[in-house]
Write a structure and sequence with these properties.
Layout (H helix, E strand, L loop, with lengths): L8 H26 L6 H31 L55 E6 L8 E7 L8 E6 L2 H4 L4 E6 L7 E6 L17 H7 L19 E7 L10 H16 L13 H6 L8 H9 L15
Antiparallel strand pairs: 1-5, 1-6, 2-3, 3-4, 4-5
Helix pairs in contact: 1-2
The structure holds a DNA duplex.
DNA sequence: CTTATTTGACCATA
DNA sequence: TATGGTCAAATAAG
């Protein structure tokens, strides 16, 4: 119990700030998608650059804020009594369901064919992936599935917007714990929210601990010492489209995506960013070696050779 | 009671 | 066929 320092005020404030920034960056990302209309050679470019800059600003600000949590200590008081800064991964509500798959026995409950699984996979949906310490994004999600994934020890959870049926919102996301760094999640968003977010996250998505239960039974046994964290920083790993190399079906989308990558590159961003390429696996693999501040774990692995995203504590002091 | 989560079955795609 | 995304009955939670 020597690890949790009672910094509450600034931490809480920072937490809110970061949350807002994350959201803002999310909006900027969405805006980016809306700009896919190639109206004019010049006009569109500037718009793209603008959005790219917005995104970059958000990302960098988040990085700084996040890092400051560790390095900075002169953030000045102004603290109220300790609020709920605890996010410890202590949950204690999950019981049962010990073994994942206990199939093959004597159950034959399927009388005839259900109507399950009759869905249309959306191949051409906009998809982007981020890595974050929290899965909270101020949207109301409802879990509709969980799957064991081949090369992961952690299951993948599937969420859809709570107001899917009320407002026809088609946003979904997938959340999966990163094996090299169980404090973080890979969150893949599919589609944008079309619902009114007036009601933000009602009552379900409020505590981070709640999410532990979402991510499977073994999700909460992770001993976090540095968990007093804000846990809100995230960064874009990459956008993906259905089939990158061979996808003859959607040229439009493919075009857009490549375009997208392009302008992000042109934004003076080192080739390290979008990297991620098709193998996110590679990206995360490095994170394990850095247990120092996992805040940068991902970053370092992404931008290991870039000075653009070089974080030095000295610049923070 | 209503609403959310769990969980295996079902199905599309590689 | 293997893998993973979704559905929906059963169950839990509020």
């Amino acid at each position: 119990m020597s690890i949790l320092f009672p910094r509450s005020s600034s931490a809480t404030k920072r937490k809110r700030v970061i949350r807002e920034l994350v959201q803002g960056r999310d909006y900027a990302t969405q805006l980016k998608f809306l700009l896919q209309k190639p109206i004019g050679p010049d006009g569109s470019v500037s718009a793209k650059e603008l959005v790219a800059n917005v995104l970059r600003s958000f990302t960098e600000t988040l990085s700084v804020l996040t890092s400051s949590e560790v390095a900075i200590s002169g953030d000045h008081h102004r603290d109220e009594v300790a609020q709920n800064l605890v996010i410890s991964g202590e949950d204690a509500s999950q019981v049962e369901s010990i073994d994942p798959r206990s199939e093959g026995s004597t159950e034959s409950k399927k009388g005839s064919k259900d109507r399950r699984g009759s869905y249309k996979r959306r191949k051409t949906e906009q998809t982007w992936t981020i890595v974050a310490q929290t899965t909270d994004d101020n949207h109301a999600w409802r879990k509709y599935g969980q799957k064991e994934i081949l090369n992961s020890q952690f299951p993948r959870s599937y969420f859809r917007c709570t107001r899917k049926f009320e407002q026809g919102c088609r946003a979904t996301k997938q959340v999966q714990r990163i094996q090299e760094n169980p404090d973080m999640y890979t969150i893949t968003y599919i589609g944008f929210h079309t619902c009114k977010d007036t009601l933000k996250a009602p009552q379900m998505v409020t505590h981070s601990e709640t999410w532990d239960s979402f991510l499977g039974p073994d999700a909460n046994d992770v001993p976090n010492e540095h968990d007093s964290t804000i846990g809100s920083q995230s960064l874009i790993v990459k956008q993906e489209y259905p089939n990158d190399e061979t996808d003859p079906s959607d040229l439009t989308d493919a075009n857009f995506w490549s375009d997208f990558k392009d302008f992000e590159l042109s934004n003076d961003k080192p080739a390290g960013l979008k990297i991620a390429s098709e193998n996110a696996d590679t990206v995360y693999s490095c994170t394990g070696s850095r247990s120092l501040d996992m805040d940068f774990g991902i970053f370092s692995s992404h931008f290991c050779s870039t000075e653009d995203f070089h974080f030095d504590e000295s610049q923070l002091l």
